[in-house]
Amino acid sequence: MAEVIGIMGGTFDPIHYGHLMAAEEAREAFDLEKVIFVPAGIPPHKVQGQVTSPRHRYLMTLLAVMANPNFAVSRVDLDRGGVTYTVDTLTDLRTEYPDATMYFITGADAILEILTWKAPDQVLALAEFIAVTRPGYGLERLAMALGPLYVPFKDRIHILEVPPMGISSTDLRRRLKTGRSIRYLVPETVATYIYSEGLYGTGERG
Ligand code: ATP
Ligand code: MG
Fold first, then answer.
1. What is the mean pLDDT of residues 139-145?
2. Could you tell me the pTM of the whole model?
């Protein structure tokens, strides 16, 4: 039988329990054999130079998922280099998994911006989507956000209600910079890595 896989794209700067929870909820609800986390190279929507190096983001992602046999990390976007477009991610993963049913997992904020992505119609044709709820981003706006793509693609976008976790990497970076705790928001292995490498300004105190 053909494989059914989930793909969780993100900057993961740093990875946190919101990402891991969303992936696990999607895995269970859609019977995914595995979820592949794909750290972005240079994310198009973020300011270049303000994103942590690919090596650190890759290693933190690996540390976060390695205890889970259903989770894996792919380097496709890091190895391709340059700005990451989801259309390229999905094209490369389709080559790697020619027979798999692919579900691309995103939070509500990400899917609501899909019209700003490169080739959104191709992206929606390449994979089914699982749009997980996220505090602060209402999916009742989905039809409007998708515009002309809503009617042709709505059956390929599955909304999944997940426990609301108000965690973001932006908030974690802010906490770290100001010496606040990130405990219980990220796996301990990730926190330990951040402090030992002095990431996000944690090396500047002492
Ligand atoms: P940043 O604040 O830097 O944008 P982030 O927390 O949004 O970081 P990303 O790496 O941008 O993390 O997100 C990767 C994917 O995970 C996106 O599709 C995003 O919507 C989803 N996601 C992130 N945090 C959550 C959360 N708390 N609940 C549900 N989905 C989430
Ligand atoms: Mg984000």
1. 96
2. 0.97
